[in-house]
Write a structure and sequence with these properties.
There is one protein chain. With about 150 residues, the chain is α/β, with parallel strands linked by helices. Helices cover about 30% and strands about 15% of the residues. It has a six-stranded mixed sheet with strand order 2-5-1-6-3-4. α3 packs parallel to α4. The two termini are about 25 Å apart.
């Protein structure tokens, strides 16, 4: 363990988050998602698993270190419920609370149709699969930047 880092942030997960560039997407998905198949198509080809964790808990850890793109109108997207795209399941409500807390303001995730989500997830940098068994616990998080002077 490292001081100041959420213990959920494994070495593999930290590598993925650090290796991503500005504008790269991270797919954060539930236990039902075809994560292994989709992860093979991503830039990194990596699937990071967080067994036993809820989507909200995984989001909290990831967002503790991942800047979110503020150049984009919809840097966070959620998988829509099939047949009812306006419905926000409890798993998404919980994750949205973590997103809003991390960003310091309400930042509603934009909806994306299920198969469009799969396609976008394949184009992402990597896939992180939490152990959450609830349906529709799937998000895309677009990485932003941290600016400053060189050390």
């Amino acid at each position: 363990m490292l001081k100041g880092l959420d213990p959920v942030l494994s070495a593999d997960l930290l590598w993925v988050l650090a290796a991503m560039g500005h504008g790269d997407d991270l797919a954060l998905v539930d236990a039902n998602h075809p994560a292994e198949t989709i992860a093979r198509a991503t830039t990194s080809g990596k699937l990071i698993t967080l067994p036993g964790l809820s989507i909200a808990r995984a989001a909290r850890a990831i967002l503790s270190v991942l800047p979110i793109d503020d150049f984009e109108p919809a840097p966070i997207r959620r998988m829509e419920v099939v047949g009812n795209p306006a419905e926000i399941p409890v798993v998404q409500v919980e994750a949205q609370a973590e997103i809003d807390r991390a960003l310091g303001q309400p930042s509603p995730a934009a909806g994306i149709e299920r198969f469009a989500f799969y396609k976008a997830a394949k184009a992402s940098f990597a896939v992180v699969q939490a152990g959450d068994p609830r349906a529709y616990g799937c998000f895309l998080l677009r990485k932003g930047v941290i600016t400053g002077e060189p050390g």
